Known about the structure:
Elements: H1 2-24, H2 39-47, H3 52-59, H4 63-77, H5 86-90, H6 94-119, H7 147-160, H8 163-174, E1 180-183, E2 199-203, E3 208-212, E4 220-221, E5 232-241, E6 244-254, E7 267-271, E8 284-288, E9 291-294, E10 304-305, E11 311-312, H9 322-352, H10 371-406, H11 413-441, H12 453-462, H13 470-489, H14 513-540, H15 545-551, H16 553-577, H17 586-606, H18 608-611, H19 619-636, H20 640-647, H21 651-654, H22 665-674, H23 685-696
Helix pairs in contact: 3-20, 7-8, 7-9, 9-10, 9-11, 9-12, 9-20, 10-11, 10-16, 10-17, 10-19, 11-12, 11-13, 11-16, 13-14, 13-16, 14-15, 14-16, 14-17, 16-17, 17-19
The chain binds flavin-adenine dinucleotide.
Amino acid sequence: MRLTRLVFQLARRNASLIHRREMATSDRGSSIIPKTVNPDIQEERNAATFNVEDFALWWHGGEENLKRKRYVESSVFADIDENKTVASIQSLSHDEIYAAAMEDALALAGKLRKLQKELNPGGKDIWPGLFSGPELWGAMPGGNPFTVHFSMLVDAIRNQGTDEQFEKFGKRAENLEICAAFAQTELGHGTFLRGLQTRADFDSKTDEFVLNTPTITAYKFWPGGLGHSANYSLVMANLYIDNKPKGVAMFMVPIRDEETHMPLPGIDIGDVGKKLGFYGVNNGYLGMKNVRIPRTNMLMRHAQVEADGTFIQSPAAALGYFSMVFGRCWISANNTTMLAIAATIATRYSAVRRQGSINPKQPEVKIMDYVTQQMKLFPEIATCIADRLAALKLRQLYHQTERDIKKGKYDGLGEIHALSCAMKVMCTSDSAAGIERLRLACGGHGYLASSNLSNLYSTATAGCTYEGENTVLLLQVGRFLMKSAQQVMAGKPLAPTASYLAKIKMDQWSGSWENIVEALECATANKTHQALKNIAARMEAGQTQGEAANNTGIELTQAAELYGRSFIAANFLQEVTGINAKTRSPALNKVLENILELYLVKAALDNMNNIFRIVKITDEDVNSLQASLEKSLKSMRPNAVAICDGFDFPDRNLLSTLGCFDGNVYERIFEEAKNCSLNKEPVPRVFHTHLKPFMKSKM
Ligand SMILES: Cc1cc2nc3c(=O)[nH]c(=O)nc-3n(C[C@H](O)[C@H](O)[C@H](O)COP(=O)(O)OP(=O)(O)OC[C@H]3O[C@@H](n4cnc5c(N)ncnc54)[C@H](O)[C@@H]3O)c2cc1C
């Protein structure tokens, strides 16, 4: 029995190695990259205490999923031009990057359509399911101009439109027969929806809406794909009937001719120009002058305008924002993948980079042997795992709420809105800060475009802004917590994820995992009640409710962050110690327990200023936490490379000279530098036109 298991394990391990090697093969003509694996990274793999394939199976949700993922990757990446790297894309002009991004995205779309037919005809899990996320970014190093179309737009039509509207617009969008942008933000307003200035006036004589951009600040600005890719835009505008405002609604507006792609009459449209990242995503601007669309182009699942101008309000105001909840779930999960990619790059690099020694006169050590380096790498590995698991849980809760809404049950909306806001903030800010830490962990070479870390950072940090700016979202979560605290005082029941809010003090500190999670929850409750008390005191002193809330903003955002961290920590604890543990091998469970320990101990130390306020904690307790932190780093040291291998990213998706599976870092960095376009000629033209004349001029 044990022998059979061993043979099976070896076969699986070989399958994964073959997959990664195939993916790693370079087709550059006279490459200097060795075909062998760097012994320093091989040594790490040999030392691992668990089977990497077991980790990959767990991380990807079982054998079928993992097999399919690998098959899709092999098919998609098989004929990719290896010369299309992040560095080579970044050396192109803005227009060239856009063209390359468009070409690559459509080539990927074609491949995914074929794979969908082959693997699951009629399904949507591969096409368009895998088109927009970071899982296949290796096929599109310049970005995907259709990201918003598939990540938000189709779902917005499904959730905000009627079934007939989904038939009319949604199905065409889903098949990419039309391409649409999601246009909410304006030059003058993004966060403050009521400040939007775009108008949609109902004209009952023609049964149409008339859309206008009254000022320059009302121009739509930022929507992904809006510049030159989209021929429709889902526009958020203020609805007016008989010149009376009815609130914000969504309108499906044709913006370019479907044949010629020329902007339609009354449409002023273009690209916003170069940005920090998202190079090929074609974020655009849009102005409209007396643009007429049929009444039935307003998405009317919830609020409606009838032909005679009667306005029927949505049964729950929050329903209008439900498509953003989906967007936030999607962003949360994607950002955890970006952090996992960065962690893989920096960890593998740290296993082959040698610099200095710990004991004088002894050989140079791998930089991963420095405890301070471990502290940069391992908590990020733990964070991406914890955040990822919580993002998957959030997605489950989203689908549950979606089903409830269909049955006319709206009571879970407040909680899913708050939780999705909190999770979006945690996953985007954790990943942005984490990727930057990981870049620093790679020293100078981390600063190279070819490391892919700057590209990952610029993509991850955009998530802190779009789909709700993070501070603004935290303030909304703060309001949800305030309401929940008031419910506690009124003896009313609480939403499940805030059920702990009644308990603002803890009986005892033990430092166990359960105790740390309880402490985070209790700290959330304490901070919430503190904020509530301070708002009340400020109002009593004569401040308006708005002033009091603004002046308490720091505590409100802190309470919201604690709520997010508590959710992630509790969910991680449950995954590692709950019923799922029975489905994993003891060796894998031990590794996950190690990662959980690191995550929780670090969370407790990071939040000690809050924990001090809810429980008696001694200097000895803090010392013991510090010892646990150091012990967990030490335990994780032999497994770090193997854990990252378990994420199972093929080299093509890492797009990094530093993170390749074979560890041949220096050859890759050097080859990429040799290929830099500036090195094509021995003497640059500018030497003859400027430098030489200047040096010879004797000025
Ligand atoms: C890469 C990228 C892609 C994007 N894609 C799209 C898209 O597809 N469609 C679309 O419609 N938009 C898109 N956007 C726009 C994005 O959604 C907005 O930028 C975002 O909502 C933030 O709004 P803002 O720019 O108005 O920031 P602001 O609200 O002006 O924020 C600036 C500062 O003011 C603070 N602030 C603002 N209001 C408050 C408040 N009430 N209380 C306390 N502090 C406050 C914020 O915390 C922040 O520090 C994109 C943006 C980027 C960067």
